[in-house]
Write a structure and sequence with these properties.
The chain is of the alpha/beta class. The chain contains 13 helices and 15 strands. The strands form three sheets. Strands 4-3-2-5-10-15-14 form a seven-stranded mixed sheet. Strands 1, 6, 7, 8 and 9 form a five-stranded antiparallel sheet that branches. A hairpin with a 5-residue loop joins β7 and β8. α3 packs across α4. It is globular and about 65 Å long.
Length: about 375
């Protein structure tokens, strides 16, 4: 690590993924489960739900001879391991499970799981691509409005010290102008939002332009609002578009902390985690660095967004308590059902994990609408 000034995107890349001392990539590290719980770690019900979704994809695709499950940001392979255990034998026999993870392959992992450090080639996958809490760790730059209301790039050192840099311009300014509009102040700080026709026709592919790029004056608030912060999600849009392009046919799903354009947090969401606790985000490799995802910006033209609560309920995860009569007829079964209901309730809690955003993007018509049965949260 160096202590030179740079943007948060560069600093986070080094801190999380440096080859020798990155938080996720250093040899012998515990992986994400050593520092925080994701839905995967809460209960096997989550892997079971992904297995159910994979079976729906398999049926929609006509049960191909080879069915892929690509887990992007696979951690230590916990999700793939759980899905393999939950699948019917007939489906598991045709499955090609693939983990995409920049850390080294963990010892003892099921030999059926392919381990790779980058996404498969475009158009090479038929099946389900699933990314659980991946995009929030794709590094992004941070901006803050100065005393005149101008959005400037935040520079940081490895010790976490910050200062404001140059005004944002180019593609990043364009992204802010389209997607950064926190309620009550963001429109002023980020410039005018595009009209409905421009938004409807915007290109969603990686690197595509989204309306005219605002100049420096367009990022200046009529009434200056200093101190507003935002994360520039453009690298995540591009990363997600690249992930979707790996599919020849099937469904791409990402699940993450998320917010919508009209409800962006006024002061950003950048934070750190270490040993199960939220900490200050210091880019020295000592902690996870994460920020919520603008899933609405990532979404392609055929994508749908659901809450995790709605998605998991559509896949059979139900947090309702079992009937008390079961305690009389089958006490041990009642205890198991009660435990499962508790885990399901945690996964679908709208104030917690259930409030996560799911983005579902089908490639080809066969896998469109696989979770259409339940849209209400």
């Amino acid at each position: 690590m160096t202590n030179e000034w740079c943007g948060w995107r560069e600093a986070t890349e080094r801190a999380l993924y440096g080859p020798d001392d990155g938080f996720y990539t250093r040899p012998g590290g515990p992986g994400p489960a050593g520092h925080f719980r994701t839905s995967v770690h809460v209960s096997p019900l989550y892997a079971g739900a992904v297995a159910t979704l994979l079976c729906r994809v398999d049926t929609a695709l006509g049960r191909p001879d080879e069915l892929a499950l690509v887990d992007v940001g696979a951690g230590r392979g916990e999700l793939l391991t759980g899905v393999l255990a939950a699948l019917p034998d007939e489906v598991a026999a045709r499955l090609r499970p693939c983990a995409v993870e920049r850390a080294a392959r963990p010892p003892g992992l099921d030999p059926r799981i392919e381990w790779r450090g980058e996404l498969p080639a475009p158009g090479s996958v038929t099946g389900l691509l699933f990314a659980n809490e991946w995009l929030d760790n794709v590094p992004v730059d941070v901006v803050e409005t100065d005393a005149d209301g101008v959005a400037r790039r935040v520079l940081v050192r490895a010790d976490g010290t910050e200062r404001l840099g140059e005004p944002v311009d180019g593609a990043d300014a364009e992204w802010l102008g389209r997607w950064w509009a926190p309620s009550g102040a963001g429109d002023a700080a980020a410039g005018p939002a595009p009209d409905a026709d421009a938004a409807k026709g915007a290109a969603q592919d990686a690197g595509a332009t989204r309306g005219p790029a605002p100049d420096a004056d367009a990022l200046r608030a009529p009434a200056p609002v200093p101190g507003l912060r935002a994360e520039i999600g453009r690298p995540r849009d591009e990363a997600w578009a690249q992930a979707v392009r790996t599919l020849r046919a099937g469904l791409a799903v990402t699940a993450d902390y998320a917010h919508e354009r009209g409800d962006r947090p006024l002061f950003g969401t950048l934070t750190g985690f270490r040993d199960g606790r939220e900490v200050a985000p210091v880019p020295d490799g000592s902690c996870d660095i994460t920020a919520h995802v603008a899933l609405d910006a990532c979404a392609g033209p055929s994508a749908r967004r659901l809450t995790q609560r709605a998605a998991l309920r559509a896949l059979g995860v139900d947090g309702r308590r079992p009937p008390l009569a079961l305690a009389v007829t089958d006490p041990s079964g009642y205890v198991r059902a009660l435990s499962g209901a508790g885990a399901a309730a945690e996964l679908t809690d709208p104030a917690g994990l259930g409030g996560f955003g799911w983005l579902l993007e089908p490639v080809g018509e066969a896998c469109a609408g696989l979770l259409r049965a339940v849209d209400a949260g």
